[in-house]
Amino acid sequence: MSMDIRKIKKLIEMLQESDLTEIEVTEGEEAVRISRKSSNDFEVIEKPVQERKAEAPVNIETKEVLKSGSKVITSPIVGTFYRRPAPDKDPYVKVGDVIDAGQVVCIVEAMKMMNEIKSEYSGKIVSIEVEDGEPVQFSQDLITLE
User: Fold this and answer.
1) What's the CA gap between 103 and 144, in Å, rounded?
2) Range with the lowest mean pLDDT among 24-33, 41-50, 87-96?
3) Contact between 129 and 144 (Cβ < 8 Å)
């Protein structure tokens, strides 16, 4: 298998802890589908993206949308929002900061994995929509730039 085995194991753990019976993830040119057959029996099917039909790919990149002239960084996953890399560290960003594209702006923790969220845009932070330690949903607004 060409997709990292640790990632596949993590996906199986996520499937075990949810009510879902199937999950499919696309990473670059690779896709993997994991189906639950019973509580401890899983089927893993890995296939190149070009073999896939017209299915919508799952994208773990930061989804940013234009909103009335502002750029909004939204959560790419369900998890817990953290403004700082550790409790005793300074926040990644604060309101008024000017950031560059590619800069880490926060962390969303999911399944005990810390996922750094990077901005795709440069700009000035005008608001942070979520409090430190709050749960966030997929596509929930996190940070607004101008």
Assistant:
1) 14
2) 41-50
3) yes
Instruction: Give the domains, in start order, of the chain with CATH numbers.
Output: 5-51 (no CATH), 63-145 (2.40.50.100)
**C-alpha atoms less than 13 angstroms from C-alpha of 64 in its C-beta half-sphere:** 21
> Could you give the 3-state DSSP secondary structure of residue 104?
strand
> The whole model's pTM is what?
0.54
Condensed to tens digits (0 to 9), the pLDDT of residues 98-130 reads 999 999 999 999 888 899 999 988 999 999 999
Residues 6 or more apart from 118 whose CB is under 8 A from it? 62, 102, 103, 104, 105
One-letter amino acid at 16 equals Q
Three-state secondary structure of 10-72: HHHHHHHCCCCCEEEEEECCEEEEEEEEECCEEEEEEEEHHHCCCCCCCCCCCEEEEECCEEE
Q: Give the whole-angstrom CA distance, residue 146 versus residue 140.
A: 18
Q: Is 138 helix (H, G, I), strand (E, B) or coil?
A: coil
